[in-house]
Amino acid sequence: MYIDAIGFIAAILTTAAFLPQVYKIWKLKSAKDVSMTMYLVMLSGVCLWGVYGLIIKSPPIIVANIVTALLLILVIYFKIKYK
Amino acid sequence: MYIDAIGFIAAILTTAAFLPQVYKIWKLKSAKDVSMTMYLVMLSGVCLWGVYGLIIKSPPIIVANIVTALLLILVIYFKIKYK
Which residues 6+ apart lie within 8 Å of B44 measured at CB? Predict the structure, then answer.
């Protein structure tokens, strides 16, 4: 039970981490220094982590990677929009 | 066995993802658009994922988060150096 709690806190942190980056790009209307390659590779990895989470039946891994994927798609969208 | 393989590929992708960002900052000598908050929150989360990996005895989670932590520290160092 406390194991899932640790996983969920970790998941909240590594997922929420992308929020200030999304906000910063939106505020500056610039993503020049942000690496597009990073976010594309990260998105592939996060999708595969989701699969891994499903197989080992780890709720924090599954939920975290779905939310993270959405935030990554937002960064990729902003990167295309603002360059 | 194949479960660990999926986890390891996912781990390689989400870890390697930070490499192009490290390279980009180093090349541009600029990290203006990169969010420091993101990397500090991410580092806390990655440390906690390491703890989670140790508890559930998941080799890909443990190894991935150690390497990711090192790359995050590099981005944070560059962010301080190049602003």
Answer: A13
